[in-house]
Write a structure and sequence with these properties.
The complex is a heterodimer. Helix content of chain A is 23%, strand content 34%. Chain A is an alpha+beta fold. Chain A has two domains: 225 residues, 3-Layer(aba) Sandwich (Rossmann fold); 124 residues, OB fold (Dihydrolipoamide Acetyltransferase, E2P). Chain A has a six-stranded mixed sheet with strand order 6-7-8-3-9-10, with helices on both faces. A five-stranded antiparallel sheet of chain A has the order 13-12-11-14-20. Chain A has a five-stranded antiparallel sheet with strand order 15-19-16-17-18, with no helix packed on it. In chain A, α2 packs across α3. Chain B is mostly helical. Helix content of chain B is 74%, strand content 3%. In chain B, a hairpin with a 3-residue loop joins β1 and β2. The chains are: A alpha+beta, B mainly alpha. At the A-B interface, β6 and α2 of A face α9 and α10 of B.
């Protein structure tokens, strides 16, 4: 599937701004972004509910312009599930196949098969209002999968489920996707959901795709300051490029006592103002001042949040800036325990910081 | 005996506790409409039923009493069922009943066919336009119902507006007889009762979730199929409510058939009033009314059942 230069304007407002991207067969592609970033509009254009103001959409090489939703080889799982309340589970799932005019026996067997896959076989005769949220979600999934679409669009598929059920369903979705080999396009605002589900993520901001990559690439090598900030939590510093070599750079930050040394080159103008992002889990806390000429800072522990598997420390730098540090609670009783108002040194590896100018 | 005393005391205290918990509010709120129904429906119904079992006599009131003291201080109760038997022997009544039901059914169908697209259009309109359109539906209620029926007479008469216009345009040579036909009757009824069809349909259609139609389209249903398989079944409660709101009053309609209807075929409302005021045969008139109520009870009960099923489905 290919999207080239697609835009969508509602009056003065540009919801989707010149988006181009390719989605490969059999992958789970996540469109990730905050509310109002245009991800749902893009999805609705794929389904055919909205017409692009500019640009083209191709599915399997076929231009989708002017093709009505009911003629597209695409199915959608709606955020609200949109199950037909007056039909049984069977009726809901059979609806799409009935539109194809298949013989009754074939419809019955295909519906039964897909209901077995989503483990809803025994509820075939229930009405939607007799089901729990998780069960409705599985019926909606079955209904959108039963037509064997080339492309399945999922609008916040797990949004209405509670946390425990979500985690469970995420892995179920992946296994169903692998079983059926359908291409999934998932829209979500939940980065955790995107990270676990997606083979690739497209991060959207203000109608534009700002970065496309695997979850690992997006997390470890954010292309812009927005992506770094949006995905996970991050500590952002501003600084000037003081040493610019092909294999390393040194960035001076007014907030830090020593420069930040990064072990890879950056393409930026000399003396350019840069941002440096360091993930909280890549910073270590120490009591002694590191005997290094860069990559450390001094601060006082302001706050500690014990999360069970890890602890979050908020460290106050001398200039009033707060830095988040996470530490995994590996040992049950840790030897070195930090507490409130402790003076600590923060340090990180030269490979950890991400530098950019955008 | 000794053990009874504390038990009695306990009972008293629980009664007192209940009294303290007693909140008369809920009961009072229900009592007002219940009292109203009792006064305005049940009591007249019982009186009517009683009269329907009497015989005509020239007196005030013009029917025989049900209870009478006869000789030897015996109480005689006379129930004359022949009024009901009479209704089935005289074809006038049966024909009037059948005609009333037929008029009501056809008028309801016309109201549905006209009202459904209108209600659908209003429900789909922009919110600002929607309020305006709803206002226009309700607007005729500002004028008296009777005046509006008279206005139709002015339009449909042989020397009325429509005929005069057609004559002066040279489209016809002689006026078309429109008044006092089934045509004028249906015009009057459908016009007057259309809002009662549109409003319940609108309240139903307005609640419909548009994503259901998108889902239907997404699953390959053309707009017509989506309407027939999703919108129409989901609007069934609205169709039933609107149809009953039209059907039930039209069966007993008196004013419109008198002013616009055929002179040779009476509707049951007219028969009823003739029996009361022209014939002064109160017992037969009462029997006609009781029987009409029984005929109408059927659709009302149907309505109740659909309503209940609907509520069960929503919860």
């Amino acid at each position: 599937m290919r999207i080239t230069g697609v835009s969508k304007r509602f009056g003065d407002f540009t919801a989707v701004d010149d988006v181009s991207l390719d989605i490969y067969k059999g992958e789970i592609f996540c469109l990730l972004g905050g509310s109002g970033c245009g991800k749902t509009t893009l999805l609705r254009m794929l389904a055919g509910f909205e017409q692009p103001s500019a640009g083209q959409l191709f599915i399997d090489g076929q231009d989708m312009a002017g093709i009505a939703p009911y003629e597209r080889p695409v199915n959608m799982m709606f955020q609200s599930y949109a199950l037909f309340p007056h039909m049984t589970v069977f009726g809901n799932v059979a609806f799409g196949l009935q539109q194809e005019g298949l013989p009754k026996a074939q419809i019955a067997s295909r519906v039964a098969d897909i209901l077995d896959i989503v483990r809803m076989g025994e509820f075939a005769l229930r009405k939607p209002h007799q089901l729990s949220g998780g069960q409705r979600q599985r019926v909606a999934l079955a209904r959108s999968l039963v037509k064997r679409p080339k492309l399945l669009l999922l609008d916040e598929p797990l949004g209405a489920l509670d946390r425990k059920l979500r985690e469970h369903t995420q892995f179920e979705l992946i296994s169903i996707q692998e079983q059926l080999g359908v291409t999934f396009v998932v829209v979500t605002h939940d980065q955790e959901e995107a990270m676990t589900l997606a083979s690739r993520i497209g991060v959207m901001n203000r109608g534009k795709i700002v970065q496309i990559g695997t979850p690992h690439q997006i997390y470890e090598f954010p292309a812009t300051r927005f992506v770094a900030d949006f995905i996970g939590s991050v500590n952002l510093f501003e600084g000037q490029l003081v040493e610019d070599e092909s294999d390393y750079v040194r960035v001076a930050c007014s907030q830090l006592p020593v420069p930040i040394y990064v072990d890879h080159g950056v393409s930026a103008a000399p003396d350019a103002s840069l941002w440096v992002a360091i993930r909280p889990e890549k910073i270590t806390l120490e009591r002694q001042q590191p005997d290094s000429t860069d990559n450390w800072a001094r601060g006082v522990i302001r706050d500690i949040a014990y999360m069970g598997d890890m602890s979050i420390f908020v460290v106050l730098l001398p200039d009033g800036r707060e830095v988040r540090v996470t530490a995994a609670n590996v040992a049950r009783k840790s030897g070195e325990t930090f507490t409130w108002d402790d003076e600590v040194y923060l340090s990180w590896d030269a490979s950890s910081p991400v530098v950019g100018s955008g | 005996m000794g053990c009874l005393k504390p038990r009695g005391g306990q009972r008293l205290s629980t009664v007192l506790a209940r009294l303290r918990q007693w909140r008369p509010g809920r009961g009072l709120v229900i009592a007002v409409p219940m009292g109203w129904m009792l006064l305005s429906f049940l009591a007249p119904f019982i009186i009517d039923f009683k009269i329907s079992l009497a015989q005509v006599q020239v007196a005030i009131p013009p029917y025989t009493p049900m209870f009478e003291w006869v000789q030897d201080k015996a109480l005689a109760i006379r129930l004359h069922w022949h009024n009901y038997a009479f209704l089935f022997t005289d074809s006038l009544y049966i024909r009037s009943y059948v005609y009333s039901l037929q008029v009501a059914a056809i008028a309801t169908l016309f109201c549905l066919l006209l009202g459904y697209p209108m209600a659908y259009g209003i429900a789909r309109a922009q919110p600002a336009t929607r309020n305006l359109l709803l206002m226009l539906v309700v607007l005729p209620f500002w004028t008296s119902f009777l005046l509006r029926v008279y206005a139709w007479m002015g339009l449909l008469r042989n020397n009325g507006l429509i005929n005069n216009a057609l004559l002066s345009l040279g489209l016809i040579d002689t006026p078309i007889q429109m008044m006092q036909t089934d045509f004028s009757l249906y015009i009057g009824i459908v016009y007057s009762y259309l809002p009662f069809m549109i409003l319940p349909l609108y309240t139903n259609l307005e609640k419909h979730d548009n994503t259901l139609l998108e889902a239907a389209a997404d699953l390959g249903a053309r707009p017509v199929t989506a309407f027939l398989r999703v919108t129409l079944p989901l609007s069934l409660p609205g169709i039933v409510a609107g149809s009953l709101l039209v059907f039930i009053p039209v069966v007993g309609e008196y004013v419109i058939p008198s002013l616009l209807g055929r002179p040779d075929q009476l509707m049951i409302g007219r028969v009823l009033s003739d029996e009361f005021f022209a014939n002064r045969d109160w017992p037969v008139a009462s029997a006609v009314a009781i029987l009409m109520l029984l005929f109408l009870l059927l659709p009302i009960m149907l309505f109740q059942r659909v309503q209940q099923r609907n509520q069960a489905g929503e919860s």
